[in-house]
Specification:
Length: 237
């Protein structure tokens, strides 16, 4: 609602945790509501403070930033919960896209809810997501899809890749430039004729979208192993 207050404070009651989506590449994709939120909260919790500070500086936002990443421990979560207990308004951001999606922010949200239950306000500030961006250009039916995040590096990797390949409906996963070739070759070994779309550097200057079977996409030199990747596998008829 247009007249709904943006920031919710209540003396003696838990504050508000805003889950703020930020651009996955193109800074113009940030929403005015996200900027207003980041400007108005007491503290921004960021996966990488350097990335967050660069983003905030670009939009002339001067809110303090603290790190919350995969290495955060229970004492860090405890401090955040204590801030919320005291009525603070906090914003959680990831390096890019929507926090808590294949992201350590999911642990924080879970712990805040476990401790403060329904007394805390957790509000999504919707915006960019590499998952939905890739699905939107894939051309595959996505009324049902499964998101697998990043495949494990070692333990459980083969099991996860077999699970991805066995999924009959559309499947989406992330991959880094260091492992994109390995992952595609491993998937090719399981289902070489399955169609896929490989999205690289979505919304950025060197964005590329490659389409074909896994056998075609893994031909020498087809995929440039630079940037961040989203792999979308077509449903199996």
């Amino acid at each position: 609602m247009d007249n709904e207050p943006l920031f919710l404070y209540s003396n003696g009651m838990p504050g508000t945790l805003y889950i703020v989506a930020t651009p996955i590449g193109n800074l113009q994709d940030i929403s005015p509501r996200a900027i207003t939120t980041l400007r108005g909260v007491d503290l921004v919790l960021a996966e990488d403070t350097r990335v967050a500070k660069k983003l905030l500086s670009h939009f002339d936002v001067h809110t303090p930033v603290e790190r919350f990443d995969a290495n955060a421990d229970a004492s860090t979560v405890r401090r955040i919960i204590d801030k919320l207990k005291n009525g603070a308004a906090l914003a959680l951001v990831s390096d890019a896209g929507t926090p808590a999606v294949s992201d350590p922010g999911s642990w924080l949200v879970s712990e805040v809810l476990r401790e403060l239950k329904e007394t805390v306000k957790i509000i999504p500030i919707a915006g960019p997501s590499a998952v939905t961006a890739a699905l939107s250009v894939s051309g595959f039916y996505s009324d049902i899809f499964t998101f697998f995040g990043f495949p494990p590096h070692k333990k459980g990797r083969t099991t996860r890749l077999n699970e991805i390949a066995a999924t009959k409906h559309t499947a989406v996963l992330f991959e880094s430039p260091h492992r994109i070739e390995k992952t595609l070759m491993e998937l090719r070994a399981i289902c070489p004729e399955r169609h896929a779309v490989i999205c690289r550097e979505l919304t950025k200057m060197f964005e590329t979208i490659d389409r074909g079977t896994l056998a075609e996409l893994t031909t020498a030199g087809r995929i440039r192993a630079q940037g961040e990747f989203v792999i979308v596998l077509a449903p199996v008829n």
